[in-house]
Amino acid sequence: MNKLLQTNASGAVILIRLVVGGVFLSEGIQKFLYPAENGAGRFARIGIPSPDVMGPFVGVVEIVCGTLIVLGLLTRLAAIPLIINMLVAVFVVHGRFGFFMNWGGQQAGEGIEFHIVTIALLLMILVRGSGTASLDLAATRRNALTL
């Protein structure tokens, strides 16, 4: 478990964590506050199977993992489902509707560029860890003191 929590990234990673985690936290909350526009309704319009299940499921994943990334807690683990989430968006949604169009040609969505940048930032977090300003590092230091 210590290896999972260890980090070789600087404290500046907190800026990336706050932005990336904050975006996912916000997106997840919006799936519940505005289900027709951002949750199950949107999933139905773009052809995601079982939108009434997948919309809330993705919302919960985004809220939980986004919060963990903001806190810097189990950060590497939290990055994995979000990377999968973004890969689904890239290949399923943009693959179907066009890589250089918004979600299903709708003006209310984002283009593929957002997903590519987000995947790159999540991969950086996955590889480098949460940085020195994180609960992951605090946990590894506490474990080192108790050994």
Provide a descriptive summary of the structure in words.
This protein has helices at 2-5, 13-33, 35-38, 40-45, 51-71, 75-97, 112-128, 135-146. By secondary structure, the chain is an all-alpha fold. The protein has one domain (2-146). It is elongated. It starts with a helix and ends with a helix.
What is the number of E strands? 0
Segments where pLDDT lies below 50 for 5+ residues? none
Radius of gyration, taken over Cα atoms and rounded to an integer in Å: 17 Å
Return the average pLDDT rounded to an integer: 85
Query: What's the overall geometry?
Result: elongated
> What is the helical fraction, as a range of percent?
over 70%
Largest sheet: none
**Whole-number count of domains:** 1
- Helix/strand-derived category reads mainly alpha
First-to-last CA distance: 14 Å
Share of residues in strands: under 5%
Please trace the helix and strand order, writing H or E for each element: HHHHHHHH
Helix count, per DSSP?
A: 8
Walk me through the topology.
Layout: H1 2-5, H2 13-33, H3 35-38, H4 40-45, H5 51-71, H6 75-97, H7 112-128, H8 135-146
Helix pairs in contact: 2-5, 2-7, 5-6, 6-7
Primary descriptors:
single chain, 147 residues, mainly alpha, 8 helices
How would you summarize this macromolecular structure in one to three sentences?
With 147 residues, this protein is mostly helical. The chain has helices at residues 2-5, 13-33, 35-38, 40-45, 51-71, 75-97, 112-128, 135-146. The model has no long low-confidence stretch (mean pLDDT 85).
